[in-house]
Amino acid sequence: MSTIKPIFLLADSQLLFWREEDVPFLERIRKAIEDEEPGKEIRAAYVGASNGDAPEFYDLFKAAMSEVGIRQTRMIPAELSDDDKEAMDQAELILLAGGETRRGWEAFQANGLQQKIVERYYAGALLMGVSAGAVQLGLKGADDQGMFDTFRLVPFVVDAHDEPNWTQLTRVVPKAGEHVRGFGIPSGGGAIYHPDYSMEPVRHPVVEVSVSEEGQVRQALLFPGERTEAEEEERRTFSPEVQALLDEAGAAVSIPPDDDEKPVN
What number of other Cβ atoms are within 10 A of residue 78's Cβ? Predict the structure, then answer.
């Protein structure tokens, strides 16, 4: 049985090297994977389609992974080989890189990663998104051409490093559907979407954008150490691809209990 992992959303690459009380933030990611299989050598895949597979950003990823002892890494290009597909099937950690949200999304649609990444998530892989990659894991992307659906694994609209006004987020959320909320992750910060449908800021407060019953766009701050949960309506925002996988998987996936619910030995 596979355990659903948290999804890590980063505004930029700063958190890849950030330390809290001299402990690398990425230790939290490594621990989330090793809790299920202690001592396992983690295989990490870097998906760089959003930035045109720029090698310098993959080098940054490798350097960050090596700081927490993850040395089996592979760059997955937009044009997939059979070896790339096998690496995706085996990866315990998958990072979606930053760049242009639509560029990456169209590449995923063309090369089959639109469905493969969802399959890997429900098979127990841990997903990370940086900037455009974080946006893609949420409900919607947007640019000058308009809005478009993305992975919808995180039931919120996500935006990154557009502080202080969050112009795009406040424009997209009212058009994204009834009861939809958005979260803006500021530069240097992050957020963790947990399997219990809650959102947790990392390092800096995130901005929560919602629409009142009167149609007024509201903003509020969510601080590190706090969490907000998805409402029942928001939990029903899965894409058809995700819903089909859930129906097919049935009891093949499990959601870990909250810390408060874990049994005490």
Answer: 19
